[in-house]
Design brief:
Blueprint: H1 2-39, H2 48-85, H3 89-100, H4 102-105, E1 110-120, H5 143-155, E2 160-163, E3 166-167, E4 175-177, E5 180-183, E6 186-188, E7 192-197, H6 200-209, H7 211-223, E8 226-237
Antiparallel strand pairs: 1-7, 1-8, 2-3, 2-7, 4-5, 5-6
Helix pairs in contact: 2-3, 5-6, 5-7
Length: about 250
C-alpha cells in the first residue's frame, strides 16, 4: 500500500511546484519593476562620497565664476571711491581708515620673511599594501593636521598667512573632503602648503610644542606622511579677493 501511494504523493508535489513557480516569477517581476522605478535609470549603489565630491566640484566652478564677477565689482567700487574721495573729506577719511586696517584684514598684499610648512599624503605602493599597522586614514593628511599647523603658526606670532597661496582671513575655514582640502569654495589636492610671515624662531618653537603637530610628525615617521618646514627670506602674499559675506543656518519653515 505504501508503494502504491508514492506516485500519488509525487504527483501532488509536482502540482504544488507548478503553482509556486509562477507566483515566485510574478513576485520577482514586481521587485525588479519597483527597483527600476526607484532608480529612475540611475545606479542605486552610487557611493555617497563620490556624489559629494562631484557636488563640491560643481559648486567650486560656480563660486569661481561668482568670485570673478565680485572682483570686477570691487575694482569698480574702489575706482568710484577714489574719485569721490578727491572732493569729499568724509569719504577720504573712511578710505584712509580702511586702508590702514587692510593688512590686518588680509585685503592688501604683504611680503616678508616666511616659514613654509608642507603636508603630504604617504606615497602609495603599486600593490596597494599599506605600511605595517596602518589603515587608510593613517596615510592621508586630515583637516585636524592642517588646522594644527595653522593654529601653531598663529600662536607663534604669524602676521599673515596663506594656504595653497590663498590668503587666510578671519572667516577662513579649513575643511577636508576625502583627501582634498576645501577652502573658500575651492578644492585643493595634497601636498598642502601653509606659509606664514612672522618671527621664524617663535613660529618654529610653536610648531615644536604643538600637541597636534607632534602627533602628525609621529605619524609621518610611522607611516611615511610628508612633513617639511623651510624658511624663505622674502615671500609675497596676495591680498584676499574673495567674498566677505557671512552665511548662517536658517530654520526650515
Amino acid at each position: 500500500m505504501r508503494r502504491a501511494l508514492r506516485p500519488h504523493r509525487r504527483e501532488r508535489r509536482r502540482r504544488g511546484w507548478g503553482l509556486a513557480v509562477p507566483a515566485v516569477m510574478l513576485a520577482a517581476g514586481l521587485l525588479f519593476s519597483a527597483t527600476a522605478t526607484a532608480a529612475r535609470g540611475t545606479d542605486l549603489r552610487v557611493d555617497d562620497s563620490v556624489q559629494l565630491r562631484e557636488l563640491i566640484a560643481q559648486r567650486a566652478d560656480e563660486i569661481a565664476r561668482e568670485d570673478e564677477i565680485a572682483r570686477e565689482l570691487r575694482d569698480e567700487n574702489e575706482s568710484l571711491t577714489d574719485g569721490l574721495a578727491g572732493g569729499d573729506d568724509e569719504i577720504a577719511a573712511e578710505r584712509d581708515r580702511a586702508e590702514a586696517e587692510a593688512a590686518a584684514a588680509g585685503t592688501t598684499a604683504v611680503h616678508g620673511p616666511a616659514l613654509i610648512v608642507s603636508l603630504d599624503d604617504a606615497p602609495r605602493r603599486g600593490d596597494g599594501v599599506l605600511p605595517p599597522g596602518a589603515n587608510v586614514d593613517d596615510v592621508v593628511v586630515h583637516q585636524q593636521d592642517v588646522q594644527a599647523v595653522v593654529n601653531a603658526l598663529w600662536a607663534g606670532g604669524a602676521e599673515a598667512m596663506t594656504i595653497m597661496d590663498i590668503r587666510v582671513i578671519s572667516t577662513s575655514a579649513v575643511r577636508c573632503v576625502g583627501n582634498t582640502l576645501l577652502l573658500h569654495g575651492q578644492v585643493y589636492s595634497p601636498p598642502f602648503v601653509i606659509a606664514a610671515i612672522g618671527p621664524a624662531d617663535r613660529m618654529l618653537q610653536a610648531l615644536d610644542t604643538s600637541p597636534g603637530v607632534a602627533a602628525y610628525r609621529q605619524a609621518a615617521v610611522d607611516f611615511g606622511l610628508g612633513y617639511d618646514v623651510r624658511q624663505e627670506p622674502d615671500r609675497v602674499m596676495p591680498a584676499y579677493d574673495g567674498s566677505h559675506e557671512l552665511t548662517n543656518a536658517e530654520p526650515v519653515r
